[in-house]
Amino acid sequence: MKIIAIISQKGGAGKTTLAVHLATAAIAAGYTTAIIDLDPQGTAASWGDRRTAGAPEVISGQAVRLPALTTAARENGADIVILDTAPNADQTASLSARAADLVLIPCRPSTFDLEAIETTLLLAKAAKKPAYVVLNAVPPRSGIGKEATEGLRAGGAQVAPHQLSQRAAYGHSVIDGRTAQEFEPGGKAADEIVVLFKWVCGIVDMPTRGQAKKVA
After folding, report:
1. Which of 4, 184, 185, 213 is deepest in the core (most CB within 10 A)?
2. Among positive and negative, which fits the CA dihedral 82, 138, 174, 46?
3. Could you read off the pLDDT of 19-64 as tens digits, one per residue?
4. For 145-169, how does the pLDDT look when each residue is reduced to its tens digit (9 = 90+)?
5. Whether the predicted pLDDT of 85 surpasses 60
6. Domains in the chain and their CATH numbers?
7. What Cα–Cα distance (Å) separates residue 66 from each residue in 87, 101, 134, 197, 206?
């Protein structure tokens, strides 16, 4: 079982959006997948409540129970567990990073967001786990994503080679518990998620199988 922790100390970075979209991509690829929502706001759990499809399972929990929650997921046959963490919660972020096989740090390509990411990068470094920044809500047809990537890499951060653009499908789809892949299967947002998920599979050494499978 692989554990992917999605961490950002800044609110509004897109943690839950990334979590639910990667989880749905994993389901479509044939993997038994669960999301553990460690954010007291429960955004991922609320998304799961609105969702009509049977998977992924979304579990609400506290960081101190993370070992028990991940053990239960493993015993129930999960292939992938995605941890959706709270902003400004150092203990939750630290425990999640230590439990993870991969840490993803969503970040918008704005000056304020880029300046605020240093704390999260240091936390991920302390966990001694692979960590990558995933640029999110990047304006299409803009060079700002490339500029942000270059700046982050110049500062020593690893940046995922695939980014998520600012697209309506991401926001519209989650209203009724879906994701962009389900809301607009042939759309650009869906394509971005598939490419990002395939890259994640390569990082955690999981085969990218059955990408076209329909989520039921």
Report:
1. 4
2. positive
3. 999 999 999 999 999 999 999 999 999 999 999 998 999 999 998 9
4. 999 999 999 999 999 999 999 999 9
5. yes
6. 2-105+168-204 (3.40.50.300)
7. 17, 14, 24, 24, 23
Q: Name 78's bridge partners.
A: none
In terms of residues, how long is the chain?
A: 216
Tokens standing for residue 38 = 């460690």
Let me know: does 35 contact 84? Beta carbons within 8 Å: yes
Query: φ and ψ at 167, to 5 degrees?
Result: -130, 140
pLDDT in tens, 95-140: 999 999 999 999 999 988 998 898 889 988 899 999 999 999 999 8
SS3 readout for the chain: CEEEEECCCCCCCCHHHHHHHHHHHHHHCCCCEEEEECCCCCHHHHHHHHCCCCCCEEEECCHHHHHHHHHHHHHCCCCEEEEECCCCCHHHHHHHHHHCCEEEEEECCCHHHHHHCHHHHHHHHHHCCCEEEEECCECCCCCHHHHHHHHHHHCCCCECCCCCECCHHHHHHHHHCCCHHHHCCCCHHHHHHHHHHHHHHHHHCCCCCCCCCCCC
Q: Give the pLDDT confidence score for residue 213 in this predicted structure.
A: 43
